[in-house]
Every structure is written in structure tokens, then in C-alpha cells.
Amino acid sequence: MSQKKEPPQAQGKVDVTDVVCPMTFVKTKVALDDLDPGQILSIRINDGEPIRNVPQSLKEDGHLVLGLNDNGDGTYELVVKKGQDR
Amino acid sequence: MAFTNQQLERYSRHILLREFGTKGQKKLLESKVLIIGAGGLGSPAAMYLAAAGVGAIGLADDDRVDLSNLQRQILHATADLGKPKVQSGAETILAINPEVKVNLHPGLVKADNVLSLIEPYDFVLDGTDNFSAKFLINDACVIARKPFSHAGIIRFQGQLLTYLPGQGPCYRCLFLKPPPPEAIPTCRQAGVIGAMAGVIGCLQALETIKCLTGLGKPLTGFLVTFEALGMDFRKIKVPARADCPVCGPRPTILAPEDYDPPACDLKNP
After folding, report:
1. pTM assigned to the model
2. Mean pLDDT in chain B?
3. Which fold has domain A12-81?
4. Coil, strand, or helix at residue A85?
5. Quick one: pLDDT at residue B267?
6. Rounded to a whole number, what is the distance in Å from the CA of A49 to chain B's nearest CA?
7. What's the gap in Å between the CA of A18 and the closest CA on chain B?
8. Of B43, B50, B59, B48, nearest to B29 (Cα)?
9. I need a labelling partner for B42 at 20 to 30 A (CA). Which of A82, B151, B152, B221 fits?
């Protein structure tokens, strides 16, 4: 459907495929702590509940979800830009 | 500091809160709170603050666990009868959260030791049951510029307020001096509904957490009263006294002072 774009260079990476919700988002938040607003985090995340919950929670916290790439192994790469601290 | 995976899981429900997050949790883990009175109010406050991950909790109480305490003082259980309350309280705290550092202060809090007692702490929680202690804690905290939570309960009523340094009113602005010894019945004579201690002690724990993390607006400038039979919460705006003898611009109380021990401290009156 959409043209595949080269994802922006991520300044941070976190793998949350080893935990279940809500620890997926807790780990994501901790990873975002290490970044400055405007920087990019790449999150390796499982299909199912995590992929339904984490992007939504990121938006509610004021971050910008840039993209979701299928890794082809049941996991996804979620790319998010850190919002302003508040 | 970096969180361990266990800490992330233990405190996940805090960290998930947008306003709280990892920042708020770090602040709690680095905070030191002194709870004076390990009784009705101090029990739920100590337990929630321990569960919340407050780094160090000081317990000050010179009493031992008595059967008549157990109706409301949930830090203590039947097996603790006769133990010093600070010891029984520390055991409960560590059972909830072994990460907490517990400091025991088993002596009576008095004018000559209160300032050194509160000095190392970031916040003081008054969970005492008598006027002389409440005025002593108020004066010491105002003089030492220490934020604190005042509360009191009797029968079906409770009240609380929060004092921040330089932001009156303080307890003395509301109640200039302790009432005459027989004017107000003590808890021992008047009775108190046990769950009242839970309601008001938990509100004190919340105020403590808010002040330590900078969340929301502390209960300064207001007195909250709760009347259980009508389920009436009231938030009453209270001004600072311009001539308050301790927090006013020209204080006359420059050091903590002791008052007569309350009737309820007398053994077998």
C-alpha cells in the first residue's frame, strides 16, 4: 500500500518482546528516558496485545509514532519520535 | 540510578502514570520520610509509603503494641502484642518491601530531641494522637523549614492539612495553642472508628508522595475535614495568621517547647 521508506536513524533501541503488557510500555518509557525530545527510538515488539497497546500509550504520552515495520518473524519494529518532556 | 527489572515491575503502576513516570519513582526511591506515631494514622501511611518505594522511612514511637491498638493500627498484628511499635512496624514495612531502609526511633519525641530527629528527613508525617505532640511537631517543622502533614482523628471525624516551608498556614495558625487538658476527650476516652485511621492516614501518604515528587497541588492553605456518618468531605480555605507565633513574620516561639503530657499517656488513670 504505502511506499516503503527508509526509516530515520534511531538514537535508541529497545527490545520488549521478552515481557508482556504493561511491562512492554514500562520498558519503552525507560528507554525513552535516555533520549532527548525529537530523537528516535526503535522498539522491537510482539504482535497481538503489545502492538495494540504500546503505540496508543505512546501517543497518549505525547510521542509521535513514525512507523511500524513487520520483521517477518511475528515481531515488529515500532519507530517513535520522543515528544517534549512534560 | 538505573532501575532493576524487579523495580520496574514492582513500581510499574507508578511508572505508567504519565505525570509520575520514572522521574517520580526515582524521587521516591531517593526520599526519606519520618513518621511520628506508628499507630492508627502512621500504620496505613507507613505501609503505602513502603509499598510506593520511599527510600527510607523513619518510625518514631515510644509505645508497645497493645490489644486495644489492633482495631485500627494495621502495622501491628496479634502476634506483635507487647513488642515495641517501631520494631513491629519495621517488620511489616520490610515484609511489604525489603528495599526500604527503616530507621527506628523508639524514644519519646520531645522538645530537646525533635529538631535532630527530623533533620535528616525530607518530609515529616504527624501520626500522633495528642495535642502536645502535634504542637511540638508543628513548631519544630516550621522552625526547621521541614514540610509536614498534620492529621487528627476522633470518633467519626478526621482532618488534615499540609505545611510547606514559608507557605502558611501552619497548625498553630488554625489552633493557636493546645486546649486545656480536659477540654477535648482523647481517643482513648472518645473512641474512633478504625477505618477512619485508614482514610486519613492514606490521605497523608498521598500528600507525602505528592510533595516528594512535585505532583499536583499539596493541601496547603486548606484544611480537609471528613465526617464519616454523612460521608462529608470538606475542603476549607484557611488563612495564615499574620501574628502566628511560630510561622508569622515576627515569631515569638523560636524553639520547640514541651506541653503537659496528654491524659491518654497516663497509664491506668
Report:
1. 0.91
2. 94
3. Translation Initiation Factor IF3 (3.30.110)
4. coil
5. 45
6. 16
7. 12
8. B50
9. B221
Query: How far apart are the C-alpha atoms of B44 and B127, rounded to whole Å?
Result: 10
The verdict on a CB contact (< 8 Å) between B22 and A30 is: yes
pLDDT-based confidence at residue B250 (cuts at 50, 70, 90): very high
Q: Report strand pairing: B232-237 vs A40-46.
A: unpaired
Distance CA B203, CA B209 (A): 10
Check whether B102 has a pLDDT greater than 80: yes
Is residue B149 within 8 A of residue B162, CB to CB? The reply is yes
In a domain, B221, yes or no: yes
Name the amino acid, one letter, at B169: P
Does residue B14 fall inside a structural domain? no
CATH number for the domain that contains residue B202: 3.40.50.720
Amino acid, res. B92: T
Instruction: Note the pLDDT of residue B185.
Output: 73
Q: Which residues contact B187 (CB under 8 A, 6 or more apart)?
A: B40, B129, B153, B154, B264
Specify if B41 maps to a domain: yes
The mean pLDDT of A60-69, rounded to a whole number, is: 94
Residue numbers in B near A14 (CB within 8 A): none
Q: How far is the C-alpha of B12 from the C-alpha of B25, rounded, in Å?
A: 9
Share of chain B above pLDDT 90, in %: 89
Find which of A26, A27, A59, A60 to mutate to test the B interface (most B CBs within 10 Å of its CB): A26
pLDDT of residue B254: 95
In this complex, how many residue pairs, one in chain A and one in chain B, have their CB atoms less than 8 Å apart?
A: 26
